[in-house]
Amino acid sequence: MTARVLDGKALAAELRAEIAAEVAQLQAATGRAPGLGVVLVGDDAASRSYVTAKEKACAAAGIRSREILLPASASREAVLEAVRELNADDDTDGILVQLPLPDAAIEREVIEAVDPAKDVDGFHPVNVGRMVLGLPAFVPCTPAGILEMLRRAEVPLAGALVVVVGRSAIVGRPLSILLSQKGVDATVTVCHSRTPVLARYTLQADVIVAAAGSPNMITADMVKPGVVVVDVGVNRVPDETSARGYRLAGDVDYEPVARKAAAITPVPGGVGPMTITMLLRNTLIAARQRRAPQA
């Protein structure tokens, strides 16, 4: 068996073309393109790279982006003031605070300071609560991208047993909620670092989502033939043959698992492009909602 590769890069390009067309329509109707405000604290190379990729994607889709760059030493009040500035800016429809912050102790307060109507990351408690209740809400971008990928690939989810490995508030927990909601109807098991004998669960799974941040933790002897595997992990693994000194690896031992799976996402080029694409979609939705005629 050779797995079908779920090409997130190709799907993201298709979706971004659709989003760009809708952005153009909105701009023609309202005279203004959607706007995304980004708060970046510090000079972490990975965060800078992520923000740059998001800003390029915005530009390609016709979405304006505004960046507020603060030093790593910025005070709690300075970071909160940046968020308040974007909350008050009528040209900013969505707000992204790039995480992690240098001071992890203020992350929750900063997230809660974002206007829920502009929370395109889907991290504010208001949006999390609405998502749990099945109400319209901004959904975290990676879970939204995974669900969209599975839908577009026509992976059967109703009645399927899905094992999500990882319980983060950004991926594992929200994805488990989305998969179990009416209309999707999967049966979901969430596993994590304290789960004994992980293979006991993964061997039963019709779909596995690996989001634990541990390279190659899902091996071929842990999956059944015909499984669909979504690899969220992006891990730097030392590699002396690479000019960078490392290579990127997912949470799944790709080649052996691909020989047993029906479908699998690569790393890179799988979930990552879908995450940024869902950020664009959320920003478009936020702009539509903020400009809708008031009753």
Q: What is the spatial order of strands in the main beta sheet?
A: 1-11-8-7-5-6
Query: Do you know the CATH architecture of the largest domain?
Result: 3-Layer(aba) Sandwich
Distance N to C terminus: 56 Å
Which CATH class of the largest domain?
Alpha Beta
The radius of gyration computed from the alpha-carbon positions, rounded to a whole number of angstroms, is 19 Å
Coarse morphology: globular
Average pLDDT, all residues: 95
Number of helices: 10
Q: Quote the beta fraction.
A: 15-25%
- The structural domain count equals 2
Share of residues in helices: 40-55%
List low-confidence stretches. none
The CATH homologous superfamily of the largest domain corresponds to NAD(P)-binding Rossmann-like Domain
Q: What structural class results from the helix and strand content?
A: alpha/beta
CATH level-3 fold name of the largest domain: Rossmann fold
Number of strands: 11
Helix-strand pattern: EHEHEHEHHHEHEHEEEEHEH
Question: Can you put this structure into words, describing what you see?
Answer:
The chain has 295 residues and is an alpha/beta fold. The protein has two domains: 31-119, Leucine Dehydrogenase, chain A, domain 1 (Rossmann fold); 141-272, Rossmann fold, CATH 3.40.50.720. Helices cover 40% and strands 16% of the residues. It is built from ten helices and eleven strands. It has a six-stranded parallel β-sheet. Helix 2 crosses helix 10 (271-291) and helix 6 packs across helix 7. The model has no long low-confidence stretch (mean pLDDT 95).
